[in-house]
């Protein structure tokens, strides 16, 4: 069976790529369907064939680019909690976010518009599911907070990397700053694992 994409699926993928680029660069609310169509070199009617609204496009972006999170959730569901599972989930989440950095940047730059959108709520549900798997059963509030902070330390990396890029070099004697996405994500994973290491549900401790 051929794995070549159909023209329709290829066009959908191009729309999602271009829309994500425009949304991240100038904001969700400031980007029109006309601009997306113009960037693609197609008519609005052709765009409507695939996506009727901007919300439809955002849902497509989330569903196509959040696959690593879904895979990590599927990996963890049904398995008994253990420190090894906890750390593996954090590693898989971090690896997925490296691959999906544009999605993270998109959410960081467009939080007000997306917070209560269907796509935003879908992404929130994914994060809640990941957090629950990381902290395990019967977790205390502190462990739930640690699981949340572990994952969000990875999600926050792009914000810090962007901030560093706009500032001067580190002062003499200071630790060198991450200059690439890979360096930043490696640091984020280290911090996330340090936080997660303090999580151990009471049912496991007993």
Tell me about this structure.
72% of the residues lie in helices and 0% in strands. Helix 4 packs parallel to helix 9 and helix 10 runs antiparallel to helix 12. It has two domains: 55 residues, Arc Repressor Mutant, subunit A (Orthogonal Bundle); 140 residues. The chain starts with 6 loop residues before the first helix and ends with a helix. The protein has 206 residues and is mainly α.
Compile the SSE list and pairings.
Layout: H1 7-26, H2 33-40, H3 44-50, H4 54-65, H5 67-76, H6 83-99, H7 101-109, H8 111-114, H9 118-135, H10 141-155, H11 157-165, H12 181-196, H13 202-205
Helix pairs in contact: 1-2, 1-4, 1-7, 4-9, 5-6, 5-9, 6-9, 6-10, 6-12, 9-10, 10-12
Unreliable runs: 1-5
Using only C-alpha atoms, the radius of gyration works out to: 19 Å
Order of helices and strands: HHHHHHHHHHHHH
By helix and strand content, what is the structural category? mainly alpha
The outline comes out as elongated
Gist?
This protein is mostly helical.
Name the features.
single chain; 206 residues; mainly alpha; 13 helices; disordered N terminus
